[in-house]
Design goal:
229 residues, alpha/beta, five-stranded parallel beta sheet
């Protein structure tokens, strides 16, 4: 995106999102995933997989579960001690589809969890049946896991998310402005993050408040950026 001549380049500060249980935005699309986290250790199976699109809240839920369970983060690759860790405590493997894993290592982790009465939570953008698994025994183990899907956000959730993202940046916005954005933005939480980041940056650069005109400009720029030349 081109910076206008009269825009100042603002200093970039970190904006850490709130990730506690009290900060979790509850909606129907998240209800099953929230329930599985809240009901630990009374899980239907020792291995749970939360699947959902980018920005859907998987990392937030994983963080809540890790705090609650005392889980250790693992990456099941060849030569790792992930299975040994899984024998001693609950374990968390995030972004399984993006980070990649060794079939045999993950198989041993799951076996360790089952034999030692611990637990494994994995997150992924894809359902496990779409993972590039070639080891039949691992595929069988994954079929026995409890898979919880997070659906696409509705207007109510997008509104909550935008308000939270603005609040994380200590920005107060009119609910009518939020409604204007929700009605015109791409239907994803990743898009919500992008809109808020760009609006904050642009408002700082121009030394202005958040307005409908500014939001319209940001939404148009993002829409144009997504269109093929």
């Amino acid at each position: 995106m081109t910076r206008r001549p009269h825009e100042q380049l603002p200093l970039v500060f970190g904006h850490d999102p709130s990730t506690g249980r009290e900060d979790l935005l509850v909606s129907d699309r998240l209800s099953a995933a929230i329930a599985i986290v809240d009901h630990w250790p009374d899980w239907p199976s020792p291995v749970v997989i939360i699947a959902g699109p980018v920005g859907s809240g998987k990392s937030h839920l994983a963080s809540i579960w890790r705090d609650k369970s005392g889980a250790e983060a693992i990456h099941p690759v060849a030569g790792s001690n992930a299975a040994d860790i899984a024998a001693l405590s609950p374990v968390l493997f995030e972004d399984a589809d993006r980070e990649g894993f060794d079939d045999t290592a993950l198989f041993h982790v799951i076996n360790s969890v089952r034999q030692n009465g611990t637990a494994l939570l994995m997150t992924s953008r894809l359902w496990p049946m779409s993972w590039p698994v070639t080891l039949p025994d691992l595929r069988s183990r994954l079929k026995a896991a409890t898979v919880v899907e997070i659906g696409e956000p509705d207007d109510e959730l997008l509104t909550q998310v935008l308000i939270k993202l603005f609040a994380d940046r200590q920005l107060l916005v009119d609910e009518r402005l939020v409604g204007y954005i929700v009605a015109r933005m791409e239907r994803s939480l990743e898009a919500a993050q992008t809109v808020v980041e760009r609006l904050d940056h642009m408002a700082l650069a121009r030394g202005t408040r958040l307005t409908r005109a500014l939001a319209a400009e940001v939404l148009e720029e993002l829409a144009n950026a997504g269109r093929p030349d």
